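Troubleshooting log. The previous structure file for this entry was overwritten by mistake, so regenerating from the original sequence record. Sequence copied from the archived sheet and checked twice against the printout by T.R.
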Amino acid sequence: MIIDSKNFKEGGKVFEHDICIIGSGAAGISIAKELGDSKLSVALVESGGLKFNMDMWNLNAGKWAVSGLGQRIQADHETKNMRLRWLGGCTNHWGGFCSPFDKLDFEKRDWIPNNYGWPITLDDLEPYYERACNYVNVPSFKYDVEREYKNHPERPIYDFGEDSKITTKMFHFATGPKGGRRVQTNFGEKYLEYLRDSKNISVYLYGTVRKINADSNGKNIKSVDIQAFIKDLQFKIKAKHFVLATGGLENVRLLLNSNDVQKKGLGNHNDLVGRYFMGHAHFALNAGLVYAIETQKPGTLLPLYTYMIDPIRKHKTFGFFVIKDHYQKKYKLLNANIGGIIWTEPYKLSTDADKNIEPVIRMRSKKSAKDQKPIIFRSCQVNVEQDPMAESRVTLQDSLDRFGDRKLQVEAKVSDLQQYTALKSFAIFGQELSRSGFGAVRIQSSSKRLFDSILPSLGGHHIGSTRMANDAKKGVVDKNCKVFDINNLFIAGSSVFASGSCVNPTFTITALAIRLADHLKKITTI
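Regenerated output below.
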């Protein structure tokens, strides 16, 4: 059932449900859909409507800065540009890249400061990844990329040998029913009819949650205060359990603005709400590659590492390289992927190499340079997870939005470890090319050049600001995504991630949301 709060004639209404989910992005809709066949009464609250509205979008405004490596980028509109407020949330503009996290991502890595690991393992999440495939419209990931594609006649991957330090992984694209690379699965569109027809789910549109109300000792949430669109009308929702699923920025904002009982904000006893904020540092590297294996046909070089239709599963995919776990440990690296490779046709190597790329390094060959037939790539990205830093955080500024609530302020950090990981990972990639007789690469590696290449938005991925942990001194929520010391408040989305891996977060967001829905079914009595 759809309820449009713009149509309310008076304020003060109170609605009661078993479970109240705040936010209708991938996390919120996945939880609601999983609860849709139960006997539970579910409220799904969305700040916007069924399409873009400028007034609602402006509520995302806040200050944003990225600093590190001796530099700082101020991007005042980034908080607004990266968040959306209408049914479907950020699945209205996401990239559609889906790949599960690695086993190592969930483990404690002693060489990374403040990395305590997750209180769950990859094994715990794998069955939920499988269920998440249907939500995002991708095939199952239960196969070995290297084994299945090694000798495929259409789309073989390059074989670096069993002793290689790198391996191949794959993104599946969450492609919606319209098809095409840029038409990703939109949760709002996919599930609108289902939500409209549901007997136990009430979707409250144009309802902006402004405050989460706790009881006098702060142990239980009683209700949420909701602003009805732009009108001077408010209403409440009471529930047995509440799920905060508004994204890695707004989750923090709501907790910190809800400070009537707990003065530092809900769940913030240990000053951890908003801390350890992470994204993905995308280091864009211009580089040159010499390729001289004459049996390779032009235009088919490493074909898996471009956008393609998977010849086995008939689904749009993209391949990428990662450093194997053993070597991440050996070299004390963050997780990173090497991708974004755009290949060109062969051209004759001249003495004054293409000025638009880095110097091309002549691979070791018995042939002279003039006889080599090089292939270059003009673009390569090393996408690095961010290490958790306490000073990288989401807070509130003093200025207020149109409803009188404090706006966001984000100070994101880029560490020396991230720079080291980007350079070392790419160096390993180059070494493997050379060792296998494939080619060689080189980049210029000044800190300024690398920092300038980083997207100010850090990929638009807002991770770790209410992270999951084994105890309240290390995180904000427990293994079931429940806020420590609050009995009935849960958080969904990438803000609970204890680490960010080197892949995009939405697939894991969806898997964790399905897992949370199963938990809510178990603990909620009717």
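The first strand starts at residue 2 and ends at 4. Archived copy saved in two places this time.
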